[in-house]
User: Fold this.
Amino acid sequence: MSINKEVKRVTTNTLMMMKQAGEKISMLTAYDYSFARIIDGAGIDVILVGDSASNVMAGHETTLPITLDQMIYHASSVIRGCKNAW
Assistant:
């Protein structure tokens, strides 16, 4: 038995309506295209990209060494992997 539910793009307006309705908003972090596709496909509402990419992806001890160019690279990779999540 399958349920055919139309999935729509999450926008800031969608998030505001969810908050007003008392709905839970799901969020996960991704740093690349592949994980963004997996997370987006799972129906998560928001995909975060944080400076923790410095620790997780580059192996630094702190978040301080990551550059703006590196953050732009990670964020743009995640954007390409998102079809529905904000």
Q: What stands out?
A: The mean pLDDT is 93. The longest helix spans residues 68-81.
